[in-house]
Design brief:
By secondary structure, the protein is an alpha/beta fold. It has 7 helices and 10 strands. The protein has 2 domains: about 140 residues, no CATH class; about 100 residues, Ribonuclease H-like superfamily/Ribonuclease H (Nucleotidyltransferase, domain 5, 2-Layer Sandwich), CATH 3.30.420.10. The longest helix is centred in the last third of the chain and has 22 residues. The termini are far apart. It binds zinc ion (ZN).
Length: about 260
């Protein structure tokens, strides 16, 4: 394998391939070493650096057909003559503290769009934990903290999970319909976490739509006292219909037998 292939298949550049071997356990091992003609300080970017030792690190790469790919790279540590730091060079092909390449993570995410973590782990010949970690990082990156700055009108409602044995409270932005927060339970406490996030942001909640739950009503009055409280019209109509039915029954029961009620 050439450095060209190492770059285009695994996203690793500036490394020279020193060896490639097929192992017994359905695995290909690629060995490489960092070129030293373009080293930079990972802190200040200065090229005025000198090498201070090497360390081998192992990364999982995109599989070759049915074979798992392991990439063993010799990575230098550099001393910067500009800022004085002494660190390992920056690895642009992998995130910090992970044992797989960015290309591998991207490939796993593409698979996860079509199958479960377990199936993806079996296809890629890695542990379920590795795939779950990739999935979790992706979810955190895209959905962890939706920006609250422009949020003005929200809705709060509860959902039943685990066949109704557990409830969760969901808060959505009524303008974008983006879920903003999910709290445990269905009481006032379930909204408190969202209130803390709002308090730390610059957003001003103008209105809150809820069903007629007393707990949510109390939460809105306490956490968002300046917001307009909007009850879902479905619940209002239902209560009105129940009141009319009850009233009708009372009149019918109190009317004299045979009298005509208009
Ligand atoms: Zn530096």
């Amino acid at each position: 394998m050439s450095a060209f292939e190492l770059y285009h298949k695994h996203g690793i550049r500036q490394y020279r391939v020193t060896d490639i071997a097929r192992k017994k356990d359905h695995k290909i091992v690629i060995r490489g070493i960092r070129r030293t003609d373009s080293l930079q300080c990972p802190v200040c970017g200065s090229k005025n650096v000198s090498t201070k030792g090497w360390k081998e690190r192992v990364f999982i790469g995109i599989p070759s057909g049915n074979l798992k790919t392991e990439i063993h790279l010799m990575i230098p540590r550099v001393h910067c003559h500009h800022c004085g730091c002494c660190r390992q060079v920056h690895l642009e092909f992998a995130e910090e503290n992970v044992r797989y390449t960015r290309f591998f993570a991207r490939y796993a995410k593409q698979l996860l769009a079509h199958c479960t973590c377990k199936a993806a782990a079996e296809i890629l010949r890695v542990s379920w934990d590795t795939i779950k970690e990739i999935d979790k990082k992706d979810l955190q990156k895209h959905y962890a903290d939706p920006p609250l700055r422009k949020v003005k009108n929200i809705a709060i409602d509860e959902i039943a999970v685990k066949k109704g044995h557990k409830y969760m409270t969901v808060i959505v932005d009524l303008h974008t319909m983006t879920p903003l927060y999910v709290g445990d339970g269905r009481g006032k406490e379930a909204v408190k976490g969202f209130y803390e996030k709002v308090r730390k942001s610059s957003c001003k909640i103008k209105s809150v739509a809820i069903d007629m739950s007393p707990a949510f009503t109390q939460a809105v009055k306490e956490y968002f006292p300046k917001a307009i409280l909007v009850y879902d019209h479905f619940h209002i109509i239902r209560q009105m219909n129940e009141a009319i039915t009850s009233c009708r029954r009372r009149i019918m029961n109190s009317a004299a037998p045979g009298s005509l009620i208009m």
